[in-house]
Amino acid sequence: MNGVLVLDKPVGVTSFRMVREVRRIAGIRQVGHTGTLDPIASGVLPLCLGRATKISRFIMAGHKVYEGTLHLGVSTDTYDAAGRETGRRPVPALSMDDLRRAAAALTGRLLQAPPPFSAVKHQGRPLYKLARKGIHVEKPPRRIEVFAFDILGADLPRVHFRVHCTKGTYVRSLAHEFGTALGCGAHLAALRRTRSGPFAEDAALPLEEARRAAEAGRLEELLVPTTAALDHIPAVEIDGGMALELREGRPVPLGRLRRALEAQDIQPAPGVPYVRLLAEPPAGAPPELVAVAAWPEPGESPGARVRTLKVWPRSDDGAPEALDRPPRALRKKP
């Protein structure tokens, strides 16, 4: 059983519990997540099953979209509603323009330090375990990008928002920084992930539906094939000769890939350092996924080679692994 199962995680359940449940109902050990959601959050949680676990890092690189609510005037140690209250301040009279200006200041390329209560490790131990003992460790900030921080409405002290960002962005940290900028503090009151890479919430399944499908022997029908799960990565068509060389493990000059990217005007996706290499198909046939490679870095030497990260062989019957019509989890509901 190989593919991606796109679930709708409910509030109050950990991502790891969702992984354990899917292992149990699918009857396989190879199940992994592509980026966790905090227990207070709900929404899109893609899980990789079987050989699809080998592409989890590519899915994890996809952009994320969240909708949520932050509460002004109350700060917590975890930056969300699950934490201990650390301060209260009066909320000033704020207009929608005030709120939008504060949000706009938190968009673009940013450096964001992990919050004190996070799974980021320090000397092999998660920060949240140290924080529970009163040990606060400041980790160096990481580069993220917030493409949009939209204020959807406000009923002060609550503010409703939507965030579109790269992986690794802590939305509760954005809520904390938002409140700090307004001078009253804030914490994240509720959060829902509405998109993760190519997967949208309208195609995410409740765990119970996956359980019923497994009992009926139909769980595999709900899985997104590995090739279709990579649609958020830019793609370029390569000739049959390059495809053969890559599959045989022969070095391919990076210049050949650069020329193909330029000729087809393929641009990198922000925060996604990969490119899919598709073999030119026969007339009327779908393209064939050959490999995922690192996106060429500016200034690489003329003698550099294409750095493949995952290569797909032709299937056992000799037919290519084609990118067919999107499966259920990638199709819009009517």
TrEMBL record:
Keywords: Isomerase, tRNA processing. GO terms for biological process: mRNA pseudouridine synthesis; tRNA pseudouridine synthesis. Its EC number is 5.4.99.25. The gene is truB. SUPFAM superfamilies: Pseudouridine synthase. This is tRNA pseudouridine synthase B. InterPro entries: PsdUridine_synth_cat_dom_sf (IPR020103), PsdUridine_synth_N (IPR002501), tRNA_psdUridine_synth_TruB (IPR014780), TruB_C (IPR032819). Gene3D superfamilies: Pseudouridine synthase. The active site is at 38 (nucleophile). Residues 311-334 are annotated as: Disordered. PANTHER family: PSEUDOURIDYLATE SYNTHASE TRUB1 (PTHR13767:SF2), TRNA-PSEUDOURIDINE SYNTHASE (PTHR13767). One of its GO terms (molecular function) is RNA binding. It comes from the Bacteria. It comes from Dissulfurirhabdus thermomarina. The keyword rRNA-binding does not apply. Coiled coil: none annotated. Residues 23-171 form the Pseudouridine synthase II N-terminal domain.
